[in-house]
Each structure stands twice: as C-alpha cells, then as structure tokens.
Amino acid sequence: MSESWFGQKSRHFQCAVCRRLVTDAGPGLGVCPECLRTRWDAAESVVETIHRGSRERFDLPVRPPAAPVGVECALCVHRCRMQPHEKGYCAVREGTERSLRRDGRHRALLSYYHDPIPTNCVADWVCAAGTGSGYPAYSRERGPEVGCYNLAVFFEACNFNCLYCQNWSFKKSGEAGQAWIGLEDLLSAVTERTSCICYFGGDPVPQLPFALRFSRRALEKRFGSVLRICWETNGSLNPAWIKAMVDLSLHSGGCIKVDLKAWDPHVHKALTGCDNRQVLENVVQIAGFARLRRDPPLLVASTLLVPGYVNEEEVFHLARFIASLDPDIPYALLAFAPQFYLNDFPTTSRAQAEACLEAAQKAGLRRVRVANRHLIH
Ligand code: SF4
Ligand code: SF4
C-alpha cells in the first residue's frame, strides 16, 4: 500500500490563493494552511477540483448523490439519495427501482488478517489486549495477551476522501467484485486464539450492518471466551447507529477509536473532502457511553499530524474539545507517513510532534502520547 502517486518529489509549491511560496509541504493540497483557514471562499474551488480529480481516477462519485427522487441510504452523514444504477459516495451501495443493491449488509468488500498481540493498534497502550486492563472480564492476561491474535478486518470502502489516505489502494479493488466476502467465510477466521476483532479500512461505516451482524455471530461462536469488538473509524456515521456499535464494544471490553482529522472545518474539508460537524457531535455521544466503563477505556481519539496543516493550534482545539468531555479520554497523536496525494509531504518533524504533545496536555488531557515515532524526523 506504499505505491507512489506522483512521480516527482517536490517539497515546495505556490499557494493557488495567496501565491506565496510554501516550503516543507508538497503541492497535493494546492492551498496553504493559512488560506484554508482565512480565505475559504477563494480556496474552496481549488480544493474541490483536487478532490474531484482524485475520485474520477477510480470511477468514484465526485460528491454524494442527491437525486430529487431516489432511494436513500441513511448509514452515514452523506445520506446519499440514488437513482437506479447510481452509486453512493462510498460505492458500496447502488440504487435500484425500489431499494439498494451491492451490499455491506449480507456480504462485504473486505480483506482480513491475523495480527499477533501486542499489535501496533492505535489503542494498544491503553486497551485490554496491550495492557491487560480489565482482567479477567475483558483480558485473558494480567499484561499483554502474548500468543493471542487480533482479527484485523479491513473494509475496502470509505465515505471520506482523505488526500493522505494511508491505505488508498482499496479504491482500486472494489470494481472487479473479487473482494466480496460472506459472513460465514469470515466467521471461519475466528479461532480460540482470537481475542479481539478490529474493523478498520477504508472505514467500517459504509458496511456497518455487516460488521454488526458479524460481531454478534462471532460473540455467539466464542461465547464464554474473551472476544473484544473494536472499531477504527472517521466517526461519520448517522448517530442512530451509535448505540448498536457501542453496545458491542462496551460489553465485550473493546473500544471505539475515532480519528479526528482536524478541528478547523475548512482544513478538515480540504484534507478529507467532508465536513466534521457530525463527527464531533458523534464523539460527544460516544463519550457519554464511555462513562459506563472506564477500564479499559471505551473511547480513544487519535489525530494524524499532517506537516504544516495539522499543527499545535489544531491539536489544542481538538484536545480541548475532548477534555471538555472527559480529561481521561486517551488521545494518540500519529506521526505522518507521506501517501497518495500528499505523497510529497515530509514526515512529521520532532518539533511538530513535541509542540502538539504539549498543546494537547495544556488543553487538559491527561493521557496523550505520540505514536509511530519511527516516522519522526
Ligand atoms: S483491536 Fe482492540 S483490544 Fe485488540 S489490540 Fe486493538 S484496541 Fe486492543
Ligand atoms: S454509507 Fe455510502 S451510500 Fe450510504 S450514505 Fe454513506 S456514502 Fe452514501
């Protein structure tokens, strides 16, 4: 998944709005961070053109369909309304005369593997598998569950369009149809050494009904053993689905890891192609449930430190928001690896990582750490 997108490496570009020469960032976003924040009227069309191009290459809808008459999917914030043969933004669903086909309910576009514990999971520093927290109800050991496995389920579709996507190759895999997997097939991958299942991607949201059904079947199969259900998500689901997701993780000892991409709505839109308002509202709801089980934590937040764009100011605002919900919510700051349209960016610098860590602590969070330290330069 480390394929290069641009042939040439470039660490500078001229901002399409203010014409300033920007150093220490590649041209993938086209607009400097200051203009995204303060001159959105001028920046918006530049950003939209980049996102449109990045989707047309993969024959993905350039924006969520909003047919005046059509079938609606209400799984995520986009609420796509599709005419017959029109695909949803995530491309998992397609309109028919009366309903939706392709699937994400009875079968799913996914791949999976067995990840030995301790994993490099975003929450392994606080979760039951990595630390033994919640033993014996939620962990099989008093410490790391060495000898057990996480069943890592990678959903090959997404309802965001992050220009730095670390796993963007999935955009090429859905069309041939070879990756559709049925529930029974995936169930055979759950063994007695499986102590957690983690849904990630892409994102689990567009195929949430499948993940919920599969989780219930897996818990039935391993009834009496520790088997945690965990999610790694952009958090942009329709809030009506939150309780079903939370119930599975709360009772199994798993967690919901929400990746908060940015605080400023325009920086978020530029990075992901989507709004962040519902994401933040969903985090408030999940944090409410998290008070019901503090050990191991139900909610874990993370943010990727995109050089130049997700700086200490962004992190401070995000951290202050999280701390207002509960200062003990764990927050992982992830060092950046250049990928996809931001392939020309440098990795996160030590100075940026340290400034962001300090900003998150200053904002009132008590459990913050920098992950992927091997990428820091
Ligand atoms: S999937 Fe859940 S329990 Fe397993 S390592 Fe990751 S956070 Fe921990
Ligand atoms: S899950 Fe997919 S089809 Fe449904 S609303 Fe979201 S992007 Fe659209």
Walk me through the structure:
The chain is an alpha/beta fold. 28% of the residues lie in helices and 19% in strands. The chain has one domain (107-375): Alpha-Beta Barrel (TIM Barrel), CATH 3.20.20. The strands form four sheets. The protein has a nine-stranded mixed beta sheet. Strands 1-2 form a two-stranded antiparallel sheet. The radius of gyration is 20 Å and the shape is globular. The model is unreliable at 1-8 (pLDDT under 50). One iron/sulfur cluster (SF4) binds next to loops. It holds the Pfam family Radical_SAM.
What composes the largest sheet? 9 strands, mixed
Question: Any idea what the CATH superfamily is called?
Answer: Aldolase class I
The fraction of residues assigned to DSSP E strands is 15-25%
Low-confidence stretches: 1-8
Instruction: Return the CATH topology.
Output: TIM Barrel
Strand order of the largest sheet: 9-7-8-10-11-12-13-14-15
Number of domains: 1
Q: How far is the N terminus from the C terminus?
A: 22 Å
Chemical compounds bound to the protein: iron/sulfur cluster
Q: How much helix is in the residues?
A: 25-40%
Number of helices: 10
Order of helices and strands: EEHHEEEEEHEEHEHEHEHHEHEHE
Short description:
With about 375 residues, the protein is an alpha/beta fold. Helix content is about 30%, strand content about 20%. The chain has a single domain (about 105-375), classed as TIM Barrel (Alpha-Beta Barrel).
